[in-house]
Amino acid sequence: MKNVLITGGTSGIGLGIARAFAAKGYNLLLNGLEPNGPEIAKELAAEHSVKVLHSPANLMKPEQIREMVSLAEQELGQVDILVNNAGIQYVAPVDEFPEDKWDAIISVNMSASFHAAKAVWPGMKSRGFGRIINIASAHALRASEYKIAYVTAKHGIAGLTKVLALEGAPHNITCNAICPGYVRTPLVEAQIADQAKAHQMSESEVIEKVMLKKQAVKQFVTIDAIANLALYLATDTASQLTGAMLPIDGGWSAQ
Ligand code: NAD
Q1: Ligand 1 atom 21 nearest Cα
Q2: Residue 148 in contact with residue 219, Cβ under 8 Å?
Q3: Domains in the chain: boundaries
Q4: Ligand 1 binding pocket includes 215 (Cβ within 6 Å)
Q5: Contacts of range 230-237, beta carbons closer than 8 Å, 24 or more positions apart
Q6: Which of 12, 24, 141, 151 gives 20 to 30 Å between its CA and that of 192?
Q7: Predicted complex ipTM
Q8: What integer pLDDT is reported at residue 68 of this predicted model?
Q9: What SS3 class is residue 173?
Q10: 128 CB less than 6 Å from ligand 1?
C-alpha cells in the first residue's frame, strides 16, 4: 500500500484527510504541532491496521521539513503522496498587519510546500509515481480584505502547483490544489472572533455577512468533501488531472 505524508495532519482538514486515507489502507506520516499528535497517530494506526508516524517538525524550518521527509522514507520506505495542508491565518488591515505574521504565513502556507515538494521529488521521480496535493483555498483564486499575507501565500501556491505539474508530467508526478471555501475547523473558529473585531460585528453576523456571503451554497464546506477529492487525486486513474486549481467553495469562485 502507498504512503502519504500530510502536513498539519493532526487537526481540522488535515486530520480528516488522514482518517480517509487510513480507512483506505494507506500508511501515513502525520505532521502537526498539536501536543496529542503521537496519540492521534497511535489511535489511527490501531483503528485501521496501518502504519502511522507522527512528526512535530516546524514547517518554518526547512531543515526540519527535510528531516521529516527522511523519517518517512526510512520508516515507511518512501513517500508516494504529499499533502501540503498545514496553514495559519492572521486577520488585520494592511497598515496594522504585523511583519512577523506576514513572514510566518508566507513561510508555513507557501514556502513549506516548496521545501516539502523538493524533498520528496527525487524519490517520486525515480519511481515514476507521485501525487502532490496542496490544500490551498478559495483565497488562491479570490481576495478578501484584511488577509494580505494569507491571500498572497495562497496565490503563490497556485503558481507552485502549476510549475510542479509541468515539471512532474514526464515522471507521472501530478500536482493539484484543492481550493475550499469556509470549513468549520479550529482555524476558522479563531477567525470568526478576529473578523468580528476587524469588521466590528457580532460573531453570528461575521458568519452570515462576511464568510458565507461569498458562497452561493450557504453552508460550511465539509471536511469529507475535501478528503474524498484528495483520495481521488491520489489514484492511478487521476494521472491526467494535473496543474488544476479545484474549488469546493459552494460556488464562491463562480462569481
Ligand atoms: P487547523 O488550524 O485546524 O490545522 C492547521 C494544522 O497546521 C495544525 O495541525 C497545525 O499544527 C499545523 N501547523 C500550523 N503551523 C505549523 C507549523 N509551523 N509547523 C507544522 N505544522 C503547523 O486548520 P484547517 O482549517 O484544518 O486548515 C488546513 C488547511 O486548509 C490550511 O492550509 C488552510 O489555509 C486551508 N483552508 C482552510 C479553510 C477553512 O475554512 N478552515 C478554508 C480554505 C483553506
Answers
A1: 32
A2: no
A3: 3-181+221-246, 184-220
A4: no
A5: 230/17, 230/20, 230/21, 230/83, 230/133, 230/178, 231/20, 231/21, 231/24, 233/131, 233/133, 233/174, 233/176, 233/178, 234/2, 234/4, 234/21, 234/26, 234/80, 234/81, 234/131, 234/133
A6: 141
A7: 0.99
A8: 98
A9: strand
A10: no
Which residue of 88, 152, 224 sits with most ligand 1 atoms within 8 Å of its CB, as the best mutation to test the pocket?
Answer: 88
Residue 197 in grid coordinates: 473585531
The pLDDT assigned to 211 comes to 87
> Cβ distance 134 to 113 under 8 Å?
yes
Top CATH class, 3-181+221-246: alpha beta
What spacing in Å lies between the alpha carbon of 126 and ligand 1's midpoint? 30
Cell of 150: 494569507
pLDDT of the residue at 216: 96
Taking a C-beta distance cutoff of 8 angstroms, is the pair 155, 196 a contact? no
Q: Is the pTM of this model over 0.90?
A: yes
Closest CA to 81 of 158, 24, 151, 35: 24
